[in-house]
Every structure is written in C-alpha cells, then in structure tokens.
Amino acid sequence: MPGCSQIPSPRITAVSRECGIRGAAPVGYTAAVTPTRSRPGRGWFVTLEGPEGAGKTTQAARLLDAFEAAGLAVALVREPGGTALGEAIRSLLLYGEAGAAPITPRADALLFNAARAQLVAEQVAPALAAGTTVICSRFADSTLAYQGAGMGLPLDDLRALERFATGGLRPDLTLLLDLPVEVGLTRKRGVEETRFESGFDVAFHRRVREGFLALAAAEPARFATFDARESPDVVFDRLVDAVERRLPVGLGWRGRASVSVGLGREQTPAAGGSEPNGTPARITR
Fold first, then answer.
1. How far apart are CA 132 and CA 27, in angstroms?
2. pLDDT per residue as tens digits for the range 254-265
C-alpha cells in the first residue's frame, strides 16, 4: 500500500490497515482455498482488475489460451471497448480531444458505464447465455476504484449506475493484480500513456490502488489478489490455480506456464492501446 516500504509476499501476510485499508479486513495475496462453486446456469464471468501496468492484458490473453487448450468455450473482451460504440468511447476516454476541456469525474463515470452497457448487451450477456466463459480485462470495479476512490465520487451512486448499466450482472471471479503504483507507472512509460497516466498524479493512482484493495477486502469470496511484481509466468501459474480452485473448471496448466508453448510469450500491444482488441470478441467453442 502507499506509504509502505514493502508489500507482503504471496500466501504469507496481509496488507495491514495502517497501509491504507480503513474499516476493512486486511487483504492478502493469493486467496486461500475456497470451496468450488456450483455453475450459475450460464457461462462463468471472470474479470481482471488492478492499477496501471499490472499486466492485465498479458494475463487475460494467456487465460484465454489456457481455456482454449482445455477445449472450453471462452471469449475475451476489454473495457472500455469491445463494441463499435465502446471503441469510440474508449478513444475519447483514454486520449481525449486536442483543445477540449478536461472530462469531469461524473462524465467519466457516465461514459465508462455507457460503453459497459453496450458491451454487456452486445457481447457479454449473449456469450454467457450460450454457456461461454467470458474473460474481461477491467469491468465495473475499475469505475469504483478510479472514479470513486481516485476522483472522490460517491460509491453508492456509482454502484447504482453500475446496476443500471449492467442489468445487475456481476463477475463470478475477479482476479486483482496488485503492485506499487510507481512500479506500474514505470512499466507504462514510453509504451502506452493515456490521460490517466499523463493527467493524474501519483497520489491519485495510490488512491486507486487503495480502492481496489478495499474492494477485495470487502468481497473475499469474489476476489483473489496477486503480487503483480512477480514474473508473468509466476503470476499466470497463480491465476490458473485460483481459477481451478474457485470455479469447477479444469485447465490442466497448473505449474506449466513457464514451459508451455505459446503461453510464455509477451503480448504485443495492439495499435492505439495495450488491451486486447475487443471488436468483435474472440469466442472459441
């Protein structure tokens, strides 16, 4: 957490209240074993969240590969984006318009949720209804962390807006990739810088990180939290372990990421952004 010289090692200790989580239980890396859930009558909805530079894009693509290799129906989408409308909103949200006034926090929240509503209606809900697992790089927790914890909008208002935009859809499992904001911002420097890196200070990004960790502490049954400072292969092994422990799916990749052909590669950023190209969603049946 901001203000701490170190963050805890996976599976050992927890982020303390003194490190920024107030009024919530401590957050630890790599959640303990949770009983396998019963299938929700549709496909599984898995989201990846975290501050800038945590590796969500790389790990989402590798999870897609793992589901495909296991012969499971899977789709990969991103936020904001994933639809024609969402991609247009994405460009405005991430890069703005030259000479335009800054986007206000309320406008930010409304635009992100407009893109989210279209993504759910056009891509996510139909795929889930068909029994497909959907992997989404960012979802509504990002709005709570960025526009809520970061920009100071009331969380109750943002949650009401989320329910309206998504029709009440919530992830079955959220994989939170956590790391100190200075590390994440350094990773993004010179690779891809949106207005969130160039237009907001480190204190803002620290509040965002605190917001994500507070959300994870409040919903331990949904979140699994990981130290994203570790190598991509180690992080991936831990993500697969969490997916197989939390959901009744067998991916067969546990402990094999570092030697698996095709799963050890870094993902090449798409033009105009580092997130997976979301129009249309990649669906494998």
1. 30
2. 444 433 323 333
Q: In angstroms, what CA-CA distances link 50 with 106, 155, 203, 209, 267?
A: 21, 18, 16, 7, 18
Indicate whether 128 pLDDT > 50: yes
> Residue 269: pLDDT above 90?
no
Q: Give the distance, in angstroms, between the CA of residue 99 and the centroid of all CA atoms in the same chain.
A: 31
Which tokens in the block code for residue 276? 């997976």
Rg value, the chain, Cα: 18
Any idea what the Cα angle at residue 42 is, between residues 83 and 56, rounded to 5°?
50
What tens digit of pLDDT does each residue of 80-102 get? 999 999 999 999 998 887 778 89
Share of residues in the chain with pLDDT > 90 (%): 63
DSSP 177-243: EE--HHHHHHHHTTT---HHHHSS-HHHHHHHHHHHHHHHHH-TTTEEEEETTS-HHHHHHHHHHHH
Q: All domains of the chain, ordered by start, with CATH?
A: 40-284 (3.40.50.300)
For residues 109 and 227, give the distance between their C-alpha atoms in angstroms, rounded to a whole number. 28
